[in-house]
Amino acid sequence: MKVKTIPEINMTDNPLDNIIKMAPYLDEGSQRTVFGMMLEAVMSIKDDGKKAG
Fold first, then answer.
1. What is the DSSP string of 1-53?
2. Whole-structure pTM over 0.85, yes or no?
């Protein structure tokens, strides 16, 4: 397994910015997991909008 050195990264209060900063350091499987979680979050927001109307 290849070990990467991750530079110091300053996290913010914005989750999307944090994902963008950290994504290049994830392996492919982890990138897919994060992508799936993001899709679920977006779909849940979209579903909530339909119920309100």
1. -PPPPPPP----S-HHHHHHHHGGGS-HHHHHHHHHHHHHHHHHHHHHHHHH-
2. no
Residue-wise pLDDT for 36-50, tens only, equals 988 898 888 866 655
| Residues 26 and 34: beta-carbon distance below 8 Å | yes
Tokens of 24: 């290049």
Residues 6+ apart with CB under 8 A from 4: 25
Q: Which residue has the tokens 């979050």?
A: 41
Rg, the chain, Cα only: 15
Q: What's the pLDDT at 7?
A: 75
